[in-house]
Design a protein that fits this description.
Oligomer: single chain
Number of helices: 5
Shape: globular
CATH architecture: 3-Layer(aba) Sandwich
CATH superfamily: Gcn5-related N-acetyltransferase (GNAT)
Largest sheet: 7 strands, mixed
CATH class: Alpha Beta
Strand content: 25-35%
Number of domains: 1
Radius of gyration: 16 Å
């Protein structure tokens, strides 16, 4: 990264106001692992309305200088996504993030995003460990996850994919980002 530090803020996704933007992000070929390639605008609205109404799943937009720059989702893995696929512990939180495709990639941007997402999750003192389950073929995200302290545990079969179950404790994250 250059000498400038990227600063992000977060706000909840507004399913109706943000659907058009999110639709452009999740249907782009770069977002293939998001598995919404064929989604219609109404599908994206419905998905994020369901998330907004779900006490165990939250969607936030990451803003850079007030402009939506990425999507973050946090969920309770004991109730969503990973329920029954691993032994959830108190303090576990599941996470997804998506940076939109761009014609002008910025070196270090995605790593700054995942670092900000992790810092945001760990702001909650109840969060002890972040859990991710990316597609085993998504080598780019595996590298990013490792850079912020995730340690793969094992591959698991989810209904929609073969996933690499990985964990990151607060201590692992702090060690990785201050190294």
């Amino acid at each position: 990264m250059t000498g400038t530090t990227m600063t992000f803020t977060f706000r909840p996704v507004d399913p109706l106001t943000d659907a058009e933007l999110l639709h452009s992000w999740v249907t782009h070929p770069k977002a293939a692992f998001w598995m919404m390639q064929d989604a219609r605008l109404e599908d994206v609205e419905r998905t994020y309305m369901e998330i907004a109404a779900d006490e165990h799943h939250h969607a936030l937009l990451g803003l850079r200088d007030g402009t939506p720059s990425f999507l973050m989702e946090a969920y309770d893995p004991a109730h969503r996504e990973l329920a029954g696929l691993y032994e959830a512990r108190p303090g576990d939180v599941g996470m997804h993030f998506l940076t939109p495709a761009t014609d002008t990639p910025e070196h270090g941007f995605t790593r700054a995003v995942i670092t900000a997402v992790m810092a945001r999750l760990f702001e909650d003192p109840a969060v002890r460990r972040v859990v991710v389950e990316p597609d085993v073929r998504n080598t780019a995200v595996h590298a990013l996850n490792a850079a912020v302290g995730f340690v793969p545990e094992r591959e698991i079969d989810k209904p929609e994919k073969r996933a690499l179950l990985s964990f990151c404790t607060r201590e692992q994250f702090e060690k990785a980002v201050t190294a």
